[in-house]
Amino acid sequence: MSVALDEVALKSRLREVLDWDPQQVEITALSGGYSNLTYLINSEKGKFALRRPPMGYKISTAHDMVREYSVLKALEQAGYSRSPQAVYLEQDENILGAPFFIMEFIEGQILRGNSPLAQKLVPEKYRILSQQAIVSLHELHKLELEDSKLIELGKPDGYVQRQVTGWANRYQNAKTDQIPALEKVAEWLKIHQPEHSETAFIHNDYKYDNLVLDLENGINIKAVLDWEMATVGDPLMDLGTSLAYWAQEDDPAVLKHFNASHFPGNLTRQEVINYYQSKSGKRLDQMVFYYVFGLFKVAVIAQQIYKRYQLGQAKDSRFAMLIEVVKAAGKLAETSIRTEKI
């Protein structure tokens, strides 16, 4: 569901700060996301993307446009080549009702859930894509932190504990239904945190539909999108979140809407872990914790959006089914704890 912008105010601002001719600016809402809103801007200077928070109920700093803009700038300084170039940040909420920023638009294809593109891709290409996706994730985890100043984006000390506590609190604040499985998972996470963790730059929302792909010339990941939750912390928390989105063929149908990883040819979750381990050399013997955390986090994100829908602050009809995502993710997490399998 697209949300219209005040084009008159926006075009006037773009003329003022970027010297863009309002007569040459066309704005189109881009569909697909469940959270922050993205628009395509065609101008005489080329194509750009505008990012702004969702309308209505403010969930958390996950929708902080100022921070996402800062992350893109920091990645540019670090020499990372797969993030769009940040062009302009607007902090005056009077223009569009919230801060927004403009970035480079990367041409390519986005692979979403059960889209026609996802159904058309052959197993051989999925195999390559799933491997390249893990290589790209590990590439992020290897970025140098000190000289690039990426370290300034987060507070790695105590990261795991803060995340567990923070997401548990967010769930309580957004809860609409009684879901015992999630209550149990939250308590389990609090008492099963790993004693040691490493520090790396992490994306925190890494999945297929946040990748811009070139599928015409082999398989090429052109860009990684949606950096609003990126920070510095435990890289296995990042991998755990990706595993939570990494649906398999035998997963509940409602969870397959969010990633095309369930189609034939993709690595299984265990193969993802094995492949990441082969590239990183890390010990991954506590991945059940990280996977369960990822599922809990996905459930809370869905719960937050569902609450906005229930409050009437979001009208997208897709949001009505998100409570089923919350329940399914909670059940899968509970099963993983019981079986000690991913």
TrEMBL record:
* Domain annotation Aminoglycoside phosphotransferase: ranges: 26-262
* InterPro entries in the record: ACAD10-like, ACAD10_11_N, Aminoglycoside_PTrfase, Kinase-like_dom_sf
Question: Pfam families under this entry?
Answer: APH
**Stretches of the chain forming a coiled coil according to its record:** none
- Molecular-function GO terms, alphabetical: kinase activity
SUPFAM superfamilies (alphabetical): Protein kinase-like (PK-like)
Q: Which PANTHER family match?
A: HAD FAMILY PHOSPHATASE, HYDROLASE, PUTATIVE (AFU_ORTHOLOGUE AFUA_1G12880)-RELATED
| Protein name, as recorded | Predicted kinase, aminoglycoside phosphotransferase (APT) family
